[in-house]
Amino acid sequence: MTERVAIASEELSARIDPHGAELWSLTDRQGREYMTNADPAFWSGHAPLLFPIVGALNGGRYRLGGLDYALPKHGFARASPFELVEHSGSLARFRLSDSPPIRAAYPFAFVLEVAFALDGPMLSMTATVRNPGPEPLPFSFGFHPAFAWPLPGAMAKEDHAITFAADELQDIRRIDADGLVARSEATPIRDRQLPLSPDLFADDALIWDELTSRSLSYGAPDSTTLDIAFPDTPMLGVWQKPGASYICIEPWAGIADPAGFAGDFRTKPGVMELAPGAERSFRMDVTVRPR
Predict the structure, then answer these.
(1) What fold does the segment set 5-289 form as a domain?
(2) Low-confidence ranges of the chain (pLDDT < 50)
(3) φ, ψ of residue 22 in degrees (nearest 5)
(4) What does residue 261 show for φ and ψ, rounded to 5 degrees?
């Protein structure tokens, strides 16, 4: 097992697994855990990084310039070993670059760097995609952290809610049995608030593909909360397996294939392109407000 990398501030401690550059633990000064318990009866993930796709492909494959390639759901970054390139008391930076095995599934030069930094009660995660190659780089990116539900020091599970920074009146999207975006339904948000219950996820994730907010708060009234900001990602998924002790709050710049999609990868909804020599960053900040 790869040794996990520890960072700390005066308020928080975090541990990151270099395999996937995955956040495994976020604790406060009292040692209380704000991440999932990763119960394998439900889901053993912690906070995978989604690259170069978010969600599933139609048939598990994509088409590019007349050729056909396979990629697993959410891409390969979450199952790849990252190099630790910088580590201090409160900062850890990891890097993944293309390689011959990766190029067999994704034929592009790329660099993905992910930095984790603690400052007081805030954890900042910044992912930067760079294109060192000679042609435009098509990709999507997403965060997938699973936070404790209920939060430590908070009220009962059914008292938790997500409160959005702005009104979110648009319909949400749902996926089908193949993980593809298949239908819309009326939003369950009322007055910027999404009360959380396992029943919400009987049909899998709630997806916003045109989100107005770039921040939200998760927690219980007058109790422990997490303030979450995601200024660079215009989409959001919220998910759990009903009955589990986590809630995934997932800022995305990308989305699963629509049902029946058979177009070129560069025209896939949610795919962006980087010009040669360019880079693009995606930040997610989590501020812990314990009780």
Answers:
(1) Beta-galactosidase; Chain A, domain 5 (2.70.98)
(2) none
(3) -105, 125
(4) -65, 130
Alpha-carbon gap, residue 94 to 15, rounded angstroms:
13
Instruction: Give the residue carrying structure tokens 């603690």.
Output: 118
Establish whether the linkage from the previous residue to 136 is cis, with ω within 30° of 0: no
List CB contacts of 181: < 8 A, sequence separation 6 or more. 55, 173, 174, 175, 207, 209, 255, 256, 257, 258, 259, 269
pLDDT at 10: 97
Q: What is the pLDDT of residue 153?
A: 86
Total length of the chain: 291
Q: What is the pLDDT of residue 91?
A: 98
Identify whether the C-beta of residue 134 lies closer than 8 Å to the C-beta of residue 277: no
Distance between CA atoms of 180 and 28, rounded to whole angstroms?
Answer: 38
**Residues 240-271: tens digit of each pLDDT:** 999 999 999 999 999 999 999 999 999 999 99
Percent of the chain with pLDDT over 90: 97
How far apart are alpha carbons 127 and 116 in whole angstroms? 9
Nearby residues of 42 by Cβ (< 8 Å), 6 or more positions away:
240, 241, 243, 244, 245, 246
- What is the reported pLDDT for 285? 98
CA angle in degrees (0–180, nearest 5) for 205-210-216: 70
Structure-block tokens of residue 281: 């960053």
DSSP 8-state secondary structure symbol assigned to residue 181: E
